[in-house]
Amino acid sequence: MFTDSAKVFIRSGNGGNGHVSFRRELYVPNGGPDGGDGGKGGDIIFEVDDGLNTLVDFRHVRKYVAQSGEEGGKRRCHGADGKDLIVKVPEGTVVKDLESGKVITDMSGDNRREIILKGGRGGLGNMHFATSTMQVPKYAQPGQPGQELWIQLELKVIADVGLVGFPNVGKSTLLSRVSNARPKIANYHFTTLNPHLGVVNLGDGNSFVMADIPGLIEGASDGAGLGHEFLRHIERTKVLLHVVDAASVEGRDPVEDIHTIMNELSTYNPELLKLPQVIAANKLDALYDEEHDPLKALKDEFEPKGIPVFGISAVSGEGVNELLGHLFQVLRTVDRTPRVFEKEFEVEYQADRNLPYTVERSDDGAFVVEGPRIEKMLGYTNLDSEKGFDFFQKFLKQNGILDELEKAGISEGDTVRMYGLAFEYYK
């Protein structure tokens, strides 16, 4: 089964918590804090693997979680960092935020490796929180949580020339003749389920990449058949090569077929018809009606519109060299740098509150505010001075503590306690 899109859940690792411990050694009765820092959580990293050409692996594994960092230890021991999780994807994979549909990254061109989600930072151990007035800190910083996200992966084939047309018109046969690609060829609809890429070598170091875009059907732009999945591959190409069955082996009108395909392309993305277009009228070897000249009908219809028509036989090779030579000349006039989709979405990381706090209501009705940052601040602030008390109030406001007290239902005149200190609350 061909798979070129997938919905995947990813989560980076949590940072390890800081450790609370105190030095305990013989002849050192009052050892200070020696709790170590927690390890960093693992990142989620996407990396291009040239051996992949579909997203089929993501049908079986849809959840990717990096390892969390370990907690810090005694004697200032640092917790081990969590291992990064590397997710292999084929080149041309576009990573989007599932909810908004915005592009997070495009794994194309020079972008071979990118961190999609960063792991949480490890928390600081209590050895960082000792001050001259608070020598026994009993708090450590918790690790920062990892980030999680549902993403949409879309594979968009990168090629210079994209073959488009209805099923059974000979696209796979043409690609196998002119390149090193070996697609399966058979006479039934939707033979080609995977887009096949082939390098067309013209000699003298000249070459280009051709892609057999799987067969389209009328209504593809509305999602009929496998329309959307196939149409997205054409967005990367530089030149569109329409392949039609000039012999009408299946009773189709080649002129009408091209109009239908153009309509599907335009409905999906009007910018596609601004690409240079060429028509290959295939299966000339199967023409038996001498009175009807489909090649002339195609030329009369499309060459006045600036779209050249070449009569070919992918089976016998008739006219193929002339077609390839023209395609190469067209490619020399366009920018062949692969189109890379711009980043539209930034992952928002949790605000770094290095030292969190708690607001709770005690049994006697007082509001108790605790946390290592508050404890540390009280250790170096002189609340008896006007300047010190002003600093204290600004600290409560800037760190959202006053807002949290309001949410907890505090009223004027209520008591607030912080580490042995009691205050009356006034707005």
From TrEMBL:
Residues 349-427 form the OCT domain. The keyword Hydrolase applies. It is found in: Cytoplasm. SUPFAM superfamilies: Obg GTP-binding protein C-terminal domain (SSF102741), Obg GTP-binding protein N-terminal domain (SSF82051), P-loop containing nucleoside triphosphate hydrolases (SSF52540). Pfam families: DUF1967, GTP1_OBG, MMR_HSR1. GTP binds at residues 165-172, 190-194, 212-215, 282-285, 313-315. Its cofactor is Mg(2+). It is an enzyme of class 3 (hydrolase). Residues 159-332 form the OBG-type G domain. Signal peptide: none annotated. Its EC number is 3.6.5.-. Mg(2+) binds at residues 172, 192. Residues 1-158 form the Obg domain. InterPro entries: G_OBG (IPR031167), GTP-bd (IPR006073), GTP-bd_Obg/CgtA (IPR014100), GTP-bd_prot_GTP1/OBG_C_sf (IPR036346), GTP1-OBG_CS (IPR006074), GTP1_OBG_dom (IPR006169), GTP1_OBG_dom_sf (IPR036726), OBG_GTPase (IPR045086). Keywords: Cytoplasm, GTP-binding, Hydrolase, Magnesium, Metal-binding, Nucleotide-binding. Monomer. Belongs to the TRAFAC class OBG-HflX-like GTPase superfamily. OBG GTPase family. An essential GTPase which binds GTP, GDP and possibly (p)ppGpp with moderate affinity, with high nucleotide exchange rates and a fairly low GTP hydrolysis rate. Plays a role in control of the cell cycle, stress response, ribosome biogenesis and in those bacteria that undergo differentiation, in morphogenesis control. This is GTPase Obg. It comes from Enterocloster hominis.
